[in-house]
């Protein structure tokens, strides 16, 4: 498929799934493209409500693309099953193989999302607020987009944009002319520094970014440890190359039941995870900056539902 | 914090001010070229630009980067494949 055709393909896919009653929305890189922020992305990240996983799986199983059936991507993809997605796992699909494969990454939960994503739809896409929360990763290249999505939210009149500005100059200049809702000052203490024109703003924003990065890095380490035995189990199961998606799914569920921890972060302890990320941040920033960092527990409530 | 029940898009001078800050930030964070792509091109032109950049990179041998959600899984898969190979051929 021509790369220029990919975005319309994914939009048509979401449109078709919605018509069949499947609650889903495009997020991440393609959502940035939709919000007029060019990103070099070929992948599509799709949020899908876990109660619709069975329907989604049936639709994907019956869909071919240029004669190619849909299959799980590699050995490592966890099953598209509510039991594991509730714990923060994601599932990955492909049509075709090699560099020309068309891929689909499915999320049942918006990672780091502080609100329920089904309430945040914006057409076929998810609201920039959720995209910006999901973009708080360990990758430096994601961070400019967090700020840009925050600016977009403010332009559309959504005050939650203040939560996503990570550029001191932008934040300071905006705070001079626009009021910050008081509840946001409690949620994100560094906004007070912008109001007070405090020189600590830039280093605190950097510290906040480091905290998010460390949180994501540590999260991936925990999930990576949990995925290893599952990956080995799928390799040992020797799925035939032409196995239909429905059978492949049954095999993945069987392997997962035997080897894959459903919610690695909950098992590790969310409070412990947060304190480890803060300790890792403390090794990289001045101790005086730590008092200004936000409480990130709200971004893990999705794992408790 | 839930989405506000009523939103009023920025207008007039406040909107102009935000757009100015947005342009400055894009130039600093993404560079002049990407700021131009984002701020002056129409969606179809932007898509064509990104497609041509990817094609150029591929012709020059730059490997494609898997997305965030799957990159670490693919790394692990390759690591396990290397380990299995080493066990078979010690």
Write the topology of this structure.
The complex is a heterodimer of chains A (305) and B (90).
Chain A: H1 6-19, E1 24-27, H2 28-34, E2 45-48, H3 53-62, E3 64-65, E4 68-72, H4 82-85, E5 90-95, E6 102-107, E7 121-122, E8 125-126, H5 128-134, H6 143-156, H7 168-177, H8 182-187, H9 190-195, H10 201-237, H11 245-259, H12 264-268, H13 270-282
Helix pairs in contact in A: 5-6, 10-11, 10-13
Chain B: H1 12-29, H2 32-40, H3 43-59, H4 68-88
Helix pairs in contact in B: 1-2
Structure description:
The complex is a heterodimer of chains A (305) and B (90). With 305 residues, chain A is an alpha+beta fold. Helix content of chain A is 49%, strand content 10%. Chain A has 13 helices and 8 strands. In chain A, the strands form 2 sheets. In chain A, strands 1-2-6-5-4-3 form a 6-stranded mixed sheet. Chain A has a two-stranded antiparallel ribbon with strand order 7-8. In chain A, a hairpin with a 6-residue loop joins strand 5 (90-95) and strand 6 (102-107). The two termini of chain A are 39 Å apart. The mean pLDDT of chain A is 95. With 90 residues, chain B is mainly α. Chain B contains 4 helices and no strands. Chain B has helices spanning 12-29, 32-40, 43-59, 68-88. The radius of gyration of chain B is 22 Å and the shape is elongated. The termini of chain B are far apart.
